[in-house]
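Input record (one chain):
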Amino acid sequence: MSTHIAAQRGEIASRVLMPGDPLRAKYIAEKFLDSPRQYSQVRNMLGFTGTYKGVPVSIQGSGMGMPSMGIYSWELFKEYDVEQVVRIGTAGAFQNDISLGDIILSIAASTDSNFHRAFDLPPSYAPSASWELLKKATAVGDELKLNYRAGNTLSVDAFYDTTDGWFNKWVNMNVLAVEMEAAALYLNAAFHKRDALAMMTISDHILTGEEFTVEQRMYANDNMFKYALEIITR
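The corresponding structure, as predicted from the sequence alone:
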């Protein structure tokens, strides 16, 4: 049992999907897993383990932002010997040729955060995805004929940024999308020598102002959930 996850060793699978929303974790477990069982509800950050096509998989909520993702992914890697984590969440598009509902695979996560200081690293360190998971993600995405893009993403500390045109420099560098967790996940995975991948459905468009409804944010991501399950169980 770790500080923030009330599971015994062996209750969490070596392959874990991490949505930010704990209610989304519950939804995924109940809809897609066989024989799901809840192993933790500490701080209402729900966690479940079941099987998908016979392979044990856990679904663990991460909360919002890098500090929260940092806590839960660290404990999964260190206390529960988790080998693979795939973040499944939402993001805001930075490029005009990306549409609502498209899926983004984060090859590397630029960040405006100081999270790297916890590892005594300079900001020039580039947190990046696991090649093994990324390779499987592109193969599965092609097989399922999904609209996915792979590239650089941005992990930010502040959801609401008051700086005029704060996003322009990232758009100019062909960064695909912005979210709030991938860099912390990749740093923790690198430190523990584990595999991680962040994949996000586009729920907002930073340039056009288009956005999903609250209901769409919860339930319009089934293609990504199935995509992630196929990746992590192969």
